[in-house]
Amino acid sequence: MMLRAVAFVSSILAGILAFAAAAFAQSSGSGEGLPVxxxxxxxxxxxxxxxxxxxxxxxxxxxxxxxKNTLTMAEKEQVKITFVGHSTYFIETPGGIGIxxxxxxxxxxxxxxxxxxxxxxxxxxxxxxxxxxxxxxxRGWGEVPGEKAQHxxxxxxVYIRNVASDIRNWGGxxxxxxxxxxxxxxxxxxxxxxxxLHFELNEQQYTQIGRLDVLMVPVDGGLTMGxxxxxxxxxxxxxxxxxxxxxxxxxxxAFLSMFDTKFDIVYAKDDVISVSMxxxxxxxxxxxxxxx
Length: 292
Fold this sequence. Notes:
The protein has 292 residues and is of the alpha/beta class. 23% of the residues lie in helices and 27% in strands. The radius of gyration is 19 Å and the shape is globular.
C-alpha cells in the first residue's frame, strides 16, 4: 500500500514538472535543454492566469533582433538584473520584457519598463501617475482597504504573481495586505522581491511563495524589519542569490553580519547582473549590487 502511495505521488510530481517544462518550451519557442525551476513547477498549478502584452515597449532595432536570433542556448536563458535605486531593480527577460520593481518614477531604468510593480508603505515605492506608456501596472495593495491584491499574469516570457503581507501604518497600527511580495518566473528562474516587508512571513505565505532562486531583500534594519528578523526570512527562503536593496540607517554590515559561513558575500563588479539557472551559485550568495 505504501509503495502504491509513493508511486502515485511520484507520478503526480513528474506530471507537474513535465507540464511546467512544456509550458516554458511553448513560450520560448524551443525549450530543448532548458532547466525548470522548482518554483515554476509549483506556480503552474495556480489556475486562472491571464495574458497581457507580449511585446516590449521599446522594440529592438533590426540588427539587434537579428543578433538575438543567433544567441546561444545559454544566452537565451540569461536574465539581466540592474539595481536602479532604493527598492527598484530593473529585470530584463530573454524575450526583451523590462520590469521595474517598487516603481515610483523617481528611480528610473535606462528605458521605459513594460511592467512595473508597486507597494505603498512609503511614497518612494509607488506612484499614482505612472507613465501612460507603461503597459502593465501591478499594484501591491487592493482597491478596497484590507483586501488582497491578486495578480496572476503572463507578460511575454515572464509569469508574474504576488503574495500579500501586512504592513504597519503611519500611526503604528496594522494595515492588512498593504504589501505584496512579487514573484517573477522566467527562463526557469523564480525571482522574488519582498517589497516593504514589515513582518516575518507565516507558514501559509512561505508555501504560497515556494522556492525562490533569486531574492531581493530590504536591508534598512528598521523601516521594514530589523536585520535579525530579515535574516531569518532570507535563511528560510534558501535562495541561491540574494540581492540587497533599500539601504538606510545601520551600515550594510549590520545585515551581512547576520549570516554565517553557509553564505558567501560578494560585491558585483558590473552594473548589470546576469543570471540563469545554470549560473546560480552552488552556495547561497549575497551579492551587493553596484550603487547600493
